[in-house]
Design brief:
heterodimer, A: alpha/beta, Rossmann fold, four-stranded antiparallel beta sheet, 9 strands, globular, B: alpha/beta, 2 domains, six-stranded mixed beta sheet, 10 helices, 10 strands, 25% strand
Chain lengths: 227, 258
């Protein structure tokens, strides 16, 4: 599902003397359907950078990033748009939504974008919100005013609303209590069981041990070591 | 995914005397896509929008649109009546200032109904029902149907303009700073409305704005213009989060944080 070959990334800061910063080179990895891979490495090692490249949010300078057979490095924007709608889900640490849109609609949105009828999409959204213990009175409110932990759970519900065959999870259990953490780990297990390929960043070691099949230390993709 | 672009812009250039309006702009827009165009004042984004929408005649280039009836046609080489028909049926244009897109002396219902009549609707009851339906869809209470837009707030006028534009079921909407000049809370409401309409009607849109927060939420693709040239284009979040061109980097880093 995910296939990376010899991926490299540099940032060129045109407005700071044209400084070129190499952040990654020779990154290769592969994730099969039903498999969950954890990216590890110290803070600043490039875990988030790699996640963003996998989503097409950061551009790679070199190499192949193939998701479900589409090479994101070369694909036209509309191919990546389709991939993100149908195949590739991303649970980021930050919730970015139009203020005033009710939480239920925020969670249902990925399904509506796929053409799922509104009642069905909202039903699925309601199931997930209930499972993640977001109190029902909050569903009609915009999540922009919620606490950090609540926003994160809304983000997770949104990411799991559609059964994406490929998922990127950035710290999905970071600010959750034990009950909700268990719910999220169950969601991940269920996604694996239906054949989803998952790449995640988990600082929570116990969580990593419970759901991940493989750990990849991104320190190995640092330019100095690959050169 | 269809392989047919809804709109194909090829080599569009426009000069104002010695000054460049826009230079050699090409891109394809596919069904359901929203393309944002950003750049500072004078970068050529509005010139480009007006060239595409037929309000300005470019000096060179082609603007092919996949018409519902005849398939792809170069809109720049259409006859004036053909283009006028297109702008009432398949196309819509949302102006920054609602008063440029509305008839201020005509009631709200009349503003919506007029566009229907322009494409041949004649039954008063049908037109009025349709106008009522659209006022509700843009969240204007239907009790206001006989009021003139002059009695509306800026945000309401903008929503009325959108209703007037969308009532005929267009497939492509051009928008020039649709949220410009509105309060932030009104902007959010309008953005939410536009997003739902784009999704539910399967609309494609080209949105010119200088507001990067607006494009992030509304557009899935982005072009950055400077001095009439497109300096960078790509997925909206990629261009904003990993800008490659010096000018885009400057633009993104200049945003004030709240």
């Amino acid at each position: 599902m995910f296939e990376l070959k010899d991926v490299s990334k540099t940032f060129t800061l045109h407005n700071q003397g044209g400084a070129v910063i190499e952040v990654m080179s020779g990154a290769s990895l592969s994730v099969r359907p039903g498999e969950c891979v954890a990216l590890t490495g110290a803070s600043g090692a490039g875990k988030s950078t790699l996640m963003r490249m996998l989503y097409g949010n950061y551009r790679a300078q070199h190499g192949v990033i193939s998701v479900d057979g589409v090479n994101i490095v070369q694909a036209a924007p509309r191919e990546v748009i389709r991939l993100r709608r149908e195949v590739l889900g991303y649970v980021s640490q930050f919730l970015r939504v139009v203020p005033r849109v009710p939480t239920l609609n925020v969670v249902a949105e990925p399904l509506l974008a796929l053409g799922v009828p509104t009642p069905e999409a909202k039903e699925r959204a309601a199931d997930l919100l209930a499972r993640l213990n977001i109190p029902k009175p909050l569903w009609a409110l915009s999540p922009t005013t919620f606490s950090g932990g609540e926003q994160q759970r809304v983000n997770i519900a949104r990411g799991f609303a559609h059964s994406f065959p490929a998922l990127l999870l950035d710290e999905p259990t970071a600010s959750l209590d034990a009950t909700n953490r268990a719910v999220v780990l169950d969601l991940i297990q269920e996604a694996k069981a239906r054949g989803a390929a998952i790449i995640g960043i988990f600082h929570d070691e116990a969580a990593r041990a419970q759901v991940c099949d493989q750990e990849i230390d991104v320190t190995g993709f640092a330019p100095s070591q690959a050169a | 995914m269809t392989d047919h672009a809804l709109l194909s812009v090829r080599g569009v250039s426009k000069r104002y005397g010695r000054h460049i309006g826009c230079a050699d702009v090409s891109f394809g827009l596919y069904p359901g896509e929203v393309m944002g165009i950003v750049g500072e004042s004078g970068s050529g984004k509005s010139t480009l929008l007006n060239c595409m929408a037929g309000h300005l005649t470019p000096d060179a280039g082609e603007v092919f649109f996949d018409t519902a009836v005849d398939g792809p046609r170069d809109t720049l080489r259409m006859s004036e009546p053909e283009r006028r028909m297109l702008s009432r049926t398949d196309w819509a244009f949302v102006h920054q200032h609602a008063r440029d897109g509305l008839r201020m002396g005509v009631s709200a219902g009349g503003n919506v109904g007029e566009r229907l009549m322009a494409v041949g609707a004649r039954n008063y009851g049908v037109i009025r029902d349709s106008a009522e339906d659209w006022l509700e869809r843009v969240e204007i209470d239907k009790s206001r149907i006989d009021d003139r837009p002059t009695a509306f707030s800026g945000g309401m006028q903008q929503r009325l303009q959108i209703a007037r534009n969308l009532v005929t079921g267009p497939r492509l909407v051009f928008m020039d700073e649709p949220t410009g000049g509105l309060d932030v809370s009104v902007q959010a409401r309008l953005l939410d409305l536009l997003r739902s309409l784009v999704r539910d009607m399967g609309l494609s849109a080209v949105v010119v704005t200088h507001d990067l927060a607006v494009v992030r939420l509304l557009a899935n693709r982005l072009m950055v213009m400077k001095s009439g040239q497109v300096v960078e284009s790509g997925l909206t979040d990629q261009v904003l989060d990993d800008p490659q061109h010096a000018y885009t980097q400057l633009l993104v880093s200049s945003i004030l944080q709240v």
